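STRUCTURE REQUEST FORM
Protein name: Heme exporter protein C
Source organism: Paeniroseomonas aquatica
Requested output: structure tokens
Priority: standard
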Amino acid sequence: MHRFANPGRFLRLSGRVQPWLIGAAVLTLGIGLPWGLFLSPPDYQQGDTVRIMYVHVPMAWLAMGGYTGLAVTAILSLIWRHPLADLAARELSPVGAAATAMCLATGSLWGKPMWGTWWVWDARLTSVLVLFFLWLGHAALVRAFDDAERGARMGAILALVGAVNVPIVKFSVDWWNTLHQPASVTRLNAPGLHVDILYPLLVCALGFTLAFMALVLARTRAAVMERRIRTLQIAAARRAEEPGNAPLDARLAGDLA
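Status: completed
Returned output:
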């Protein structure tokens, strides 16, 4: 793992992967969203309201899966001191918070016609709301300290503590009597969806996952480059203060070139 922690190696590798990742995301979503939103049949009970699921379900999976990834970066940061783990976690939390917010918003849009209300303090809904606050808390905490390393340590601790909520979100419909329907896709016996609905849902989920990964990768690349430029600026400023050295702007231009 530490072989990929070198910023230069990471930038070179991610630079080759990112265009393919973006292209795959655009292609998959270009197929999945029209298939699900316009071409798939309505549900026999929910009617056309079921089409919200093609966005809602992938966002719910990304909210949980993304937070699991955040916990992994926390382990890499706290135990192995992985140099890129802190940057990846810092850039992951805003994207994860946005996915969770989309999950809550689309769930409310579905709940109004199905349940007759925008929100209920259901176990699943409440645990996802807690997950959203955990995402926001991590995003704010890592940026709350002047010492970036200290903020990263505090954020990693919060990520590990908050990971306890992920299985609660997942199994809340099994542990408690809730209004939210139980799992339809990941049941052990067989999916509870017809293939005409299941297949476009899986394509949409893959497309949103690829887009999520591409966005996090792009943000992490930008953070690495920003840190490298800042390091060069500091080094150039120190050299410029030494007698006989070139002015700061000329030294920095030479380093960046």
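Reviewer notes: Residues 223-257 form one domain. The radius of gyration is 22 Å.
Form closed.
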